[in-house]
Structure formats: C-alpha cells, structure tokens
Amino acid sequence: MRKSTKLALAFAALAGAVGTTAYAENNASAKMRDDMMMRLDKTMRDSNGTITFDQFSDAMNARLKKMVADNGGKLTVAQLADALEKARYERMAKRIIERYDTRGDGTLTTNDITSRQKKIFAVLDRNNDGKIDKSELPKGGRFGRHRPSGANDEDGMQ
C-alpha cells in the first residue's frame, strides 16, 4: 500500500475516532445539563419558587462535596474515577435486576434468567415451532443488531 494511502486511511480513522468522541461528549454534556435542570427544578419546587446560593450549591454538587469530605478534603482523579465507575455499574446492575427479577425482591436467580430468556424466545419464535430461524429474527430494533450468517468475529470465530 502506498504511503499516501496509508496516511489517508490513518487520518480517516483518527477523524472518525474524534467525531465519535465528540458525539459521546455532547450526549454526556446534554445529559448532565438535563440532570442539573431537574435538580434545580426540584429544589425550586421544594422552596416555593426561589433558592439561595446554599440550596443551589447543595442541589448541584452534594454528592461531589460528600466524596471530597469522605476523602479528607481532597479528591484525586483515581478516587473520582473509581466512584464514577462504581456508580455507573451500580445503575447498570439495578436495571438488569429490575428487568429479570420475577419475584420483585431485588435479587437475581438462574430461574429469573431462564424465565426472561423463555419470554424472549417465545416472542422471537413467531410460528411457535420451538425453533427460531433467520426469517423470524427482526430486521431492526433491539434484536435486529445481529450479524449476517457467516460473518466472523474479530478473533475469526463464528
């Protein structure tokens, strides 16, 4: 491959990565802004339509201030990253439990997983023959993100 072609491909890959990162950051910023506005709206409702600086500050950064206080008045990048990662995974775990928990007791069992899988299988098995063939898979949407048959994974496995 010519050097100019390699450089062009490298530039295209870099531009794609930067664009994807910018898109993700914009979405994260919009979510943070929406979360902030929801906290402010709640604080305003709870305070008859006006808020003081202390109420504003508490609404904006109560969790962050608590983390700083819990860590001796200083918070490192590693400590903040660990806390953010833990919070993210806890939210994900909560959603999974809510989705699968058939008893409503906040726990996940193999029976819960099997029950959910049976429901999904039944929805996909449109002709009720106990098998799912390619024609029964949705073309788009949540279950439609499958690769065409014969497509290889990155490691060469099917």
Automatic annotation (TrEMBL):
<keyword id="KW-0732">Signal</keyword>
<dbReference type="InterPro" id="IPR018247">
    <property type="entry name" value="EF_Hand_1_Ca_BS"/>
</dbReference>
<feature type="signal peptide">
    <location>
        <begin position="1"/>
        <end position="24"/>
    </location>
</feature>
<dbReference type="InterPro" id="IPR002048">
    <property type="entry name" value="EF_hand_dom"/>
</dbReference>
<feature type="domain" description="EF-hand">
    <location>
        <begin position="112"/>
        <end position="147"/>
    </location>
</feature>
<dbReference type="GO" id="GO:0005509">
    <property type="term" value="F:calcium ion binding"/>
</dbReference>
<protein>
    <recommendedName>
        <fullName>EF-hand domain-containing protein</fullName>
    </recommendedName>
</protein>
<feature type="compositionally biased region" description="Basic and acidic residues">
    <location>
        <begin position="130"/>
        <end position="139"/>
    </location>
</feature>
<dbReference type="Pfam" id="PF13202">
    <property type="entry name" value="EF-hand_5"/>
</dbReference>
<dbReference type="InterPro" id="IPR011992">
    <property type="entry name" value="EF-hand-dom_pair"/>
</dbReference>
<feature type="region of interest" description="Disordered">
    <location>
        <begin position="130"/>
        <end position="158"/>
    </location>
</feature>
